[in-house]
Amino acid sequence: MPVITKITQQTRDKERYNIFLDEIYAFSVHEANLVKFGLTKGMQLDNWEKEDLVYEEEIQRAFNRALHFLGFRMRSEHEVKQKLLQAEFGESVIKEAIIKLKKLGFLDDQAFSKALLSTQKNTSSKGPNAIKQEMKNKGIDPSIQESVLEEYDPKEQLETATKLAEKAARKHHTIAPAQLKQRIQNALQRKGFSFDIIKEAINAVEFEPDEDEWTSITETTGEKAWRRVSIKYKGYDRKRRVKQAMYQKGIPFDRIDAFIEKKELEEDAE
Question: Which residues form the signal peptide (predicted)?
Fold first, then answer.
């Protein structure tokens, strides 16, 4: 049975120790395992003990790799597991490393989910549906998802959605109200807000342009449609297609008719 004849501390990593069996270097161990197995000079090691040591060393290596990964930002348990799998650690080793990480407070999906909720709603103005999808992608248990998202108060959701709607309305004030409302609705859906919240947010925003704005919107929309349709069509077909295109953009019929009449008069005068 081999005997430990020397134990030396590594120069580059002070937490690791070199183990010499019968005067020959055999392997290195982490300080935690040196203490756990009570390794001392003169101690005999059988094969079972060596196998246990190797297994514990793999767990320690996985643990250290996970700690390095967690050093950049908080991670979910699923993310850490995937990272360790990519590093080719075995399932049983990963399981033990994760148990150790959770026991020491380095992994906590509840705390992680709360931090994710806070970040996404405050910095990205996301709604609960989008945040829930992110949690799902990160492997968070559905029960944790639900309990954490309950903290996202509907009043806060409405306030955020309304601010986004108002910002979009100001930015795209040259678009007809009907089209603008649809655009904002689609944007808020992508942000992860529910239909009820979106409806309330849109209803809270003033969309009706004044007369000068309506004139500008009609002219801009009409000119684009007129140029595009005029490439292939003339007469009644052009008139019908321009009217259809402008109506789809939310321009009222009376303004469409006035625009087309003006364009036809301009052509007749040429």
Answer: none
